[in-house]
Amino acid sequence: MTEVAAVVIPARLQSSRLPRKVLADLHGAPLVQRTYEVAVRADVGPVTVLADDPEVVAAVEGFGGRVLMTDPELESGTARIASVVDALDAGVIVNLQGDAPLTDPEVVARAAQEAAASDADVTLPVYRISDAGDVHDPNVVKVVRGHGGRVLYCSRSAVPHVRDAADPQDWVTRAGFWGHVGLYAYRADFLRGFADLPDSPLEATERLEQLRWLEAGLRLHAFEVEPQGPSVDTQAQLDRVRALFDGSSS
């Protein structure tokens, strides 16, 4: 029997680095609508936006999307999804960031498929890092994988360390580095138990929620995809996404 899946898009209005970005215009529609269209094209199941402000609710209802209000004080998109998991009526829930309109819909679909086929609590797509600069960029989250795609660790640092690297490019030629595409697929039972997970010193140190799950002994599964289009965290990234999106839509 096929696992019932859904896609959820957390859309925070007052994001810390670029407030109101989810309502920014992208080729004649708000950013959140363009991301919603990605989720619809993935054809995984029902698509729901989680809003933290009535203005986002109005925007989503304006383009005919389904939207639920969540507590704006919740600390992450995962926590917001966990707060409404029973209303989603699905065994697998894909978390698609509200600022990722250039995500390939096939990656969203594969995330749901991989999660349904795996016994992992959380499934995530990763891509092969080919640029040594990205290996050392703390904004690029590195994922260390074991056999069968099991996630061993996630870090903002260059993990694994390449001993005696004589040249910057040695880091990518002598070791396999994987970057996390900003997307998750959760088991519904994981979300139901999310609030009971213990505090994580590792999460507090690196500011990565994946480390809280790993430190608690949960299983994370990673599958390989091609690098995805950029998401939007800054005005410069928004400008770049506009240029890329306009080019792909012309």
List the secondary-structure elements in sequence, H or E.
EEEHEHEHHEHEHEEHEEHHHEH
CATH architecture: Alpha-Beta Complex
**Major sheet attributes:** 10 strands, mixed
Alpha-carbon Rg, integer: 18 Å
Shape: globular
Question: What is the arithmetic mean of pLDDT?
Answer: 94
CATH topology: Spore Coat Polysaccharide Biosynthesis Protein SpsA, Chain A
State the CATH superfamily name: Spore Coat Polysaccharide Biosynthesis Protein SpsA, Chain A
The unreliable regions are: none
Number of strand segments: 12
Residue share in helix = 25-40%
Number of domains: 1
Can you put this structure into words, describing what you see?
By secondary structure, the protein is α/β, with parallel strands linked by helices. The chain has one domain (about 5-250): Spore Coat Polysaccharide Biosynthesis Protein SpsA, Chain A (Alpha-Beta Complex). About 35% of the residues lie in helices and about 20% in strands. The chain contains 11 helices and 12 strands. Strands 1, 4, 5, 6, 7, 8, 9, 10, 11 and 12 form a 10-stranded mixed beta sheet that branches. Strand 4, helix 2 (about 55-60) and strand 5 form a beta-alpha-beta unit. The longest helix has 15 residues, at about 235-250. The radius of gyration is 18 Å and the shape is globular. The model has no long low-confidence stretch (mean pLDDT about 95).
